[in-house]
Amino acid sequence: MTMLKHWYESKKPKKPVHKPLPETVLPCKKYDAIVVGAGPGGASAAYFMAKEGLDVLLLERGPYPGAKNCGGASLIAEHTHKLFPNFWEECECERIITQQAYWLMTEDSILASSFQSLKLAAAPFNRFTVKRRNLYQWLCDKAVSAGAELHLNHQVDQVLFDEGQAVGVEMSPPNQNRFLADIIILADGANSLLAEQAGLIPQVSPQDLALYVKETIALPAEVIEERFNLLPGNGTIIGLIGHPTAGFNGTGSIHTFKESININVGMAIADFAASGIRPYELLERIKKHPLIQPLLSGGVSLEYGSSAIPEGGYHAIPELVHPGLLIVGDAASLVNGTHGFNLAMWSGFFAAQAAYQAKISRDFSQKKLSLYRTLLNESFVMQDLKANAKMAALQRNVPYLFNLYSHLANETAYQMSKVYTMPKKAKRNLIFKKITSIQPLTKMASDLWKVIKVIQ
Amino acid sequence: MSKLTHCTELLHFTPDDYWQHISITDQSVCQQCRTKPCLTLCPSGVFTWNLHKSEPVLVLYKQCVECGACRLVCDNINFSFPCGGYGVHFVEG
Questions:
Q1: How many CB pairs under 8 A join A and B?
Q2: What is the ipTM of this complex?
Q3: Contact flag B23-A16 (C-beta cutoff 8 Å)
Q4: Architecture of domain A209-310 in this structure
Q5: What is the pLDDT of residues A55-112, one digit of tens each?
Q6: CA-to-CA distance for B41 and B49, rounded, in angstroms?
Q7: Are the Cβ atoms of A301 and B6 closer than 8 angstroms?
């Protein structure tokens, strides 16, 4: 009986006890800058600040960099090459992407658009697939060799302020101490709790944050190359649209790594909540698709995972510059389409420049640090986000966009592929009637107009 | 084997036995909740319904993948990240 009681007790939620640190706990040391989160944004910021001679502390809550994030990922070569010249000689990349494809899917068909070229396999390349752990570790190693201090297993509990000016951070147990600095850079990823708890940014809307699930499946390199028609060492990234997200706007993808592939799928958290679809069931559904299944057959499931990706676009970007504090990467909602890494690294780079300027003028005010926002605005980062600003609203206003039009495109392709005994003119009429019976012509025209207005 | 078990068996954790990073603020609210989004939304099935207890929602926090989606759909969920070094860790990217 006592054992049973013990079992029940252990399941009971224990209220998190928040013991404020006594004022007498002295901080170890004061730094020029503290970066919270050793992802692409944080590690890049730490590296570029350390390179300029700043005294930098980089804090990571995981046991190693990249432990807390997952999902198929690609590195844009030109973006990365400009920040880290010839990075492909240092960072372990999985495959050189020579094929990019989009598959519009229904339950039994795929209408594919694909481009493959060997031109993409020559330096300076176009895209690579990478494993997060390798990329994050490489960036952290660079930061550390430039002079930054990296602390793993360090979870920041809160940012410390002095009359509105960010002055340091306080750790969660077991390393319950404080670190002080002139500048705090928050790179704590999507769903950033720190900035929100400090009242610097509002809580992100479940409409603007997408939830992705992934499964990594091991397959021999030759099998991957054969199934996806790739030369050795080359890879493909396939966007999956329509069927994978069960009627909602969202995307799936297949990323090829050296000896594994990632299947990812996700949509807005609000849509998951409203539909009652379980994320892992959505993933299972794609794996069972009759045309996807053969691609995975014989593979061994290695890892399941889930993570949140900001998809609110330009209008969801919060205030990024605060007195003594900057927000970079996913925490700043800097994700354009599916590109997060590259914008994170550039935002880290710009934040480092602003931090350096603040340091040499010994002015850590919001005004001085707003150089970060200016640099972002002048770069492709903000300009492209701005150009795509209406995309999020379009997906909200036309909730059937991906699913219905994938279906229509597949139906058209099916009818066109099929050979009938009727004359061609009659066949064209038949196709037109079929399509307009699914969606009226006027509605299609108005949706098309909405799309054109967004992409311009 | 259920789909969820298949998924959770493919995850790596360092569970914290002393501190639970997700909790339900007021269990009586869950009794009244009509939609219960937490039961389906969570990608690793942390929230489970348990009719026979005064606390209807069991929080299996040790299998949390730390996406934080739950806190955005329910104000009654008290979510924070696990302490340094604990929780999920991904290896495969």
A1: 168
A2: 0.96
A3: yes
A4: 2-Layer Sandwich (3.30)
A5: 999 999 999 999 999 998 899 999 999 999 999 999 999 999 999 999 999 999 999 9
A6: 13
A7: yes
Transcribe A187-227 into DSSP letters. Answer: ---SS-HHHHHTTSSPPPPTTTEEEEEEEEEE--HHHHHHH
pLDDT, tens only, A108-159: 999 999 999 999 999 899 999 999 999 999 999 999 999 999 999 999 999 9
A30-92+130-204+314-387 folds as FAD/NAD(P)-binding domain (3.50.50)
Q: Which residues contact A334 (CB under 8 A, 6 or more apart)?
A: A41, A310, A317, A328, A340, A343, A344, A347, A381, A385
Minimal C-alpha gap between B74 and chain A (Å) = 10
Query: Do B87 and A68 lie within an 8 Å CB cutoff?
Result: yes
Closest CB from A14, A63, A134 relative to B89? A63
Residue A75 phi/psi, 5-degree rounding, is -105, 125
CA distances from A132 to A129, A214, B54, B93 (A): 9, 13, 43, 5
* Per-residue H/E/C for A38-59: CCHHHHHHHHHHHHCCCCEEEE
Beta bridge mates, A214: A264, A305
A4 falls in which pLDDT band (50, 70, 90)?
A: very low
CB pair distance less than 8 Å for A174 and B83: yes
pLDDT of residue A2: 41
- Asked if B57 and B41 touch (Cβ cutoff 8 Å), the reply is no
Of A62, A273, A302, Cβ closest to residue B89: A62
Residues of chain A with Cβ-Cβ distance to B71 below 8 Å are: 191
B interface mutation test: which of A68, A176, A237, A263 has the most B CBs within 10 A? A68
Q: What is the CATH number of domain B3-88?
A: 3.30.70.20
The region, left, alpha or beta by phi > 0 then psi within -120 to 50, assigned to residue A199 is left
Asked if the Cβ–Cβ distance from B93 to A64 is below 8 Å, we say no
Is A319 in a helix, a strand, or coil? coil
Q: How far apart are CA A144 and CA A297, in angstroms?
A: 42
Partner-chain residue, chosen from B68, B88, B92, that has the shortest CB–CB distance to A308: B68
Does residue A65 have a cis bond before it (omega within 30 degrees)?
no
DSSP letters, A100-116, are EEEEEE-SS-EEEEEEE
Q: Is B83 helix (H, G, I), strand (E, B) or coil?
A: coil
Query: In angstroms, what separates the C-alpha of B31 from chain A's closest C-alpha?
Result: 17
Q: What residues does each domain of chain A span?
A: 30-92+130-204+314-387, 209-310, 397-455
- Residue ranges of B 51-70 with Cβ closer than 8 A to chain A: 55, 58-59, 65-69
Q: What chain B residue is nearest to A73 in terms of C-alpha separation?
A: B93
Q: Does B59 sit within 8 Å of A13, measured CB to CB? A: yes
- Chain B residue numbers with beta carbons less than 8 Å from the beta carbon of A171 are 84
